[in-house]
Design goal:
The longest helix has 15 residues, at about 345-360. Helices cover about 25% and strands about 25% of the residues. Among the domains are: about 1-30; about 120-260, TFIID subunit TAF5, NTD2 domain (Serine Threonine Protein Phosphatase 5, Tetratricopeptide repeat); about 375-385 and about 455-655 and about 670-710, Methylamine Dehydrogenase, Chain H, CATH 2.130.10. It is of the alpha+beta class and about 700 residues long. Its main location: nucleus. InterPro entries: LisH, TFIID_NTD2, TFIID_NTD2_sf, WD40/YVTN_repeat-like_dom_sf, WD40_PAC1, WD40_repeat_CS, WD40_repeat_dom_sf, WD40_rpt. Pfam families: TFIID_NTD2, WD40.
Length: about 700
């Protein structure tokens, strides 16, 4: 805008950079005498560095002053960068100024990133600046205090890092010791990392440091609170703090009532603050895809059943045409061909028929009808159980172990058999009815198969929906695809350079997702060596991954304490959910695709409305990390399993009914979480000494749980 331009031109003129001034003037078509305007420029103490002070109140407010705050016209890369940065970046200046290094790059050059801390404020005054602001905030009105208190943590970190970078080590130490106790309890882990950074050299290789420096910390503050803060900093001429607010924080300003302490506490706690409201505005097709239609053959027992009691049995053929019970497509569903999905094979159709027959006998769960729980305990698992999965039809269970093996068990009387050798297969009559039985080698039948191939602990396992394949991912950086016909490894997918923490097949097969220590999730197809999509954006390890039931979206949970939802079609991040106070370890979509449940090391289960991009519930009760979450087949009950050796059942219907998701809430984030965890908790089931690492509802709604007995 014009005022910014004028300010930059004045700065260039004062610095005797006539050539740059001319170029900028020509580009902006401003004449020589246009340098009027009521823009104050503040020169800072170091030579060649200037910061453009904010326009006086009343000017430019609609844009969220000087680029801090929401602005729909800006490029997302530049939202929140001080206005000066853009103009300076375009001019041919090559100094390493503080203003120049603001626009966030994808792969930051370490020295360029850190050079932004070259600010030479008086190190002895930092404590005074901070305690002055602290005093101001603590003495402000209650309604503003909660919102402005969000500034303490990011300012504390940036001021400390600035002192360390400029080698004022004793001042940094004293600053840290004086104020670190005032920070919220959920930042303790980050502060521990920070306390180890005491020298400039330490900052070069520290990832947490770089993340904090390159990604703006997002604070959501009402306009009234923001005006109050701005006025205070301008009256006090507190440039040091104002510069940090301008450059390192993104203040998302909303109109309306300030939020209460409870509302803020529910949403904060991630590495980079809250999500910008813009981040959760994109449309998400959370509806389910239409099921293909085919007829269910009625077998004998069904016909008999129909004679005895007409009603329930007649429903079954209908049940098969899940799509045809209403010919209309779900209005929130993605177009059927939005992403290419594999064709249904005959065996898949057969399996669907079986699934529907089972569904007809499914138990309707609810507060008065809780599921039975069958617990699979891995005894003597001295190899260290690190991952579990159960097939959709509950016929096989797989364990990934720290000794790098993958072990598959049959949990039905039917043993696991491999296909015969090629020589033996050539003797089989291919036309016979039981050809599928004949190709199996009875001599290989056993309850357990061990798969060798990884060279490090196996952290994730996933069966394909058709039960022909198994995925495993490991500390060795690979994802392996195993055949469950031959029990051999078919492919090793190499893409991650570091440990891979989780992998999961799409509900339609063919696609799968993996996430790891390199902070990205990758989407693969079984017949491609290279990933089809790379989802980058998390600031720390991607610890868990989940496909949405319609396979068009992928949710990832991370050690940066956020959950992101990614669009498979174009790789965009369409939702960012913040609120957990520790790394995320479990994710579960509700069967109707509308909601997401997440569990973390903070022992809380959070519930999210995907369409509105809002937190809608919090379930408190667990006392340790939640490693497993699963909705029952019809979505009435949510089961959670934790390191505290318990399985808890929650009333999902009640948790999601009467949601207040009006447009105002969506726009401002004024969420009101009911304190009703105890009303929603339907049951707590203790194991003797077995942490719960996996949960699975069978097709008839029996709950299966699994974990390894620990003798402590």
């Amino acid at each position: 805008d014009r005022q910014t331009l004028v300010a930059v031109l004045q700065f260039l003129r004062r610095s005797n950079l006539r050539e740059s001034e001319e170029i900028l003037r020509r580009e902006a078509r401003l004449l020589g005498d246009d340098l009027g305007g009521n823009v104050a420029t503040v020169a800072t103490s170091s030579p060649g560095v200037a910061a453009v002070a904010a326009v006086p109140p009343g000017k430019g407010e609609a844009r969220g002053d000087c680029g801090v705050g929401p602005s729909s016209q800006q490029d997302p890369q530049e939202v929140g960068s001080p206005c000066a940065a853009r103009s300076l970046r375009g001019s041919p200046l090559c100094w390493d100024t503080r203003v120049g290094a603001v626009v966030v790059e994808d792969q930051p050059d370490v020295s360029a990133v850190l050079s932004a801390y070259n600010q030479q404020g008086d190190p002895t005054l930092y404590e005074e600046y901070y305690s002055g602001l602290k005093h101001f905030i603590e003495c402000s009105l209650d309604c503003h205090r909660a919102e402005l208190s969000q500034l303490f943590y990011p300012l504390f970190v940036h001021m400390y890092l600035e002192l360390v970078y400029n080698q004022h080590e004793s001042e940094a130490k004293s600053f840290f010791e004086r104020f670190h106790g005032d920070q919220e309890c959920y930042y303790q882990d980050d502060l521990r990392v920070l306390s180890s950074l005491t020298k400039k050299e330490h900052m070069k290789g520290n990832e947490t440091m770089l993340d904090f420096r390159t990604s703006k910390f997002v604070l959501r503050i009402s306009r009234d609170s923001y005006q109050l803060l701005k006025r205070h900093l301008q009256e006090k001429q507190n440039n040091q703090i104002w510069n940090i607010v301008q450059e390192h924080l993104y203040i998302d300003i909303f109109d309306g009532m300030p939020r209460s302490k409870q509302q803020i506490d529910a949403m904060v706690g991630s590495l980079a603050g809250e999500a910008k409201r813009e981040a959760n505005k994109a449309k998400v097709f959370f509806g389910l895809l239409k099921e293909p239609e085919f007829d269910v053959p009625l077998d004998d027992e069904d016909e008999e059943g129909e004679n005895e009691e007409g009603k329930p049995k007649k429903k079954k053929p209908k049940k098969d045409n899940v799509g045809s019970k209403s010919k209309k497509q779900d209005p929130n569903a993605p177009p059927q061909n939005r992403i290419p999905l594999p064709e249904l094979k005959d065996s898949d159709k057969l399996d669907k028929v079986m699934n529907m027959k089972e569904a007809a006998r499914r138990v309707r769960l609810g507060p008065d009808c809780l599921p039975s729980i069958c617990f699979y305990t891995f005894l003597n698992a001295y190899q260290g159980l690190t991952a579990v999965d159960i097939t959709d039809d509950s016929s096989m269970i797989v364990g990934g172990f720290a000794d790098s093996t993958v072990r598959v068990w049959s949990v039905t009387p039917k043993k696991l058999r491999s296909v015969k050798t090629a020589a033996d297969l050539s003797l089989i009559d291919k036309e016979s009815d039981d050809v599928l039985e004949r190709i199996m080698d009875e001599k290989t039948a056993s309850e357990l198969k061990i798969l060798y191939g990884h060279s490090g602990p196996v952290y994730g396992t996933s069966f394909s929906p058709d039960r022909n394949y198994l995925l495993s991912c490991s500390e060795d950086g690979t994802v392996r695809l195993w055949s469950l016909q031959t029990f051999t490894c078919l492919v090793g997918y190499k893409g991650h350079n570091y440990p891979v923490w989780d992998t999961q097949f799409s509900p339609y097969g063919y696609y799968f997702v993996s996430g790891g220590h390199d902070r990205v999730a990758r989407l693969w197809a079984t017949d491609h060596y290279q990933p089809l999509r790379i989802f980058a954006g998390h600031l720390a390890d991607v610890t868990c991954t989940r496909f949405h039931p319609n396979s068009n979206y992928i949710a990832t949970g991370s050690a940066d304490r956020t959950i992101r939802l990614w669009d498979v079609l174009n790789g965009n991040c369409v939702r960012i959910f913040t609120g957990h106070k520790g790394p995320i370890h479990s994710l579960a979509f509700s069967p109707n695709g509308r909601f997401l449940a997440t569990g973390a090391t903070d022992g809380r289960v959070l519930l999210w409305d995907i369409g509105h991009g809002l937190m809608v519930g919090e379930l408190k009760g667990h006392t340790d990390t939640i490693y497993a979450l699963r909705f029952s087949r019809d979505g009435e009950i949510l089961a959670s399993g934790s390191m505290d050796n318990t399985v808890r059942l929650w009333d999902a219907v009640k948790a999601f009914e009467d949601l207040e998701t009006d447009d105002f809430t969506t726009a401002t984030g004024h969420i009101n979480l009911p304190e009703n965890s105890q009303d929603l908790l339907l049951g707590t089931y203790m194991t003797k000494s077995t942490p719960v690492v996996h949960l699975h509802f069978t097709r008839r709604n029996l709950l299966l749980a699994a974990g390894a007995y620990s003798s402590q």
